[in-house]
Design brief:
The longest helix is centred in the middle third of the chain and has 19 residues. The protein has two domains: 133 residues, Rossmann fold (3-Layer(aba) Sandwich), CATH 3.40.50.1000; 67 residues, DNA polymerase, domain 1, CATH 1.10.150. It is α/β, with parallel strands linked by helices. Helix 6 links the parallel strand 2 and strand 3. A six-stranded parallel beta sheet has the order 3-2-1-4-5-6. It is globular, with a radius of gyration of 17 Å. Bound molecules: 1,6-di-O-phosphono-beta-D-glucopyranose and magnesium ion (MG). The site of 1,6-di-O-phosphono-beta-D-glucopyranose has 20 residues, from helix 3.
Amino acid sequence: MSTIKGCIFDLDGVIVNTARYHYLAWKKLANELDFDFSEKDNESLKGVSRMESLEILLKVGGLSFDDETKLALAARKNQWYVDYINSMEEDEVLPGAKKFIERARAAGLKIALGSASKNALTILNRLKLADYFDVVIDGTKVSRAKPDPEIFLLAAHELGLPPSDCVVFEDAKAGVEAAKKAGMKCIGVGIRSELADADAVIPGFENIDLCIL
Ligand code: B16
Ligand code: MG
């Protein structure tokens, strides 16, 4: 029988596809700086923190700036991103995700969010999902980005559970690595070949039963 008592969900790519809006905002910044940024380039930003994402973007453009300018560029991108997420609709929650969380709650499991995003609460509120989470750990609460396990260890701690009683749902390679380093079971959400270190991989939450745990 499963010993799992807590589920920790990543946000972007697991509950909602905010990667689309991150991409549009990063592309806008790249275009202002006079280079193009493709959807393929955007793949390497998934699960990565805002400042690390900027470094990857600037590398693509072959540009470098001082720290003050980089902070201003990241803030500019974030403003566009926030404008996008403030127009999100409730039906943008990925298929089956809400139902899966509802079932997990009904079965007595504790629920946490473990997202690198500093905008996670805005997104949860916009999608009317905030009440589904016992604990929310986001980019404002940790100093070390995934693949460091800090975010998931803090989530387990705040849920009052040992890491071994928790399962993480992640779509990014860095997130799977963080979950495994935290000593947790990890279910990848996406394609098996890209999430090889996960204990199991699902394409999404549609038709996924709690017995996956
Ligand atoms: P923000 P997750 C991550 O969310 C995104 O996948 C990543 O693309 C983004 O750079 C990061 O959040 C930081 O987001 O700029 O809003 O603080 O997958 O950890 O839920
Ligand atoms: Mg993600």
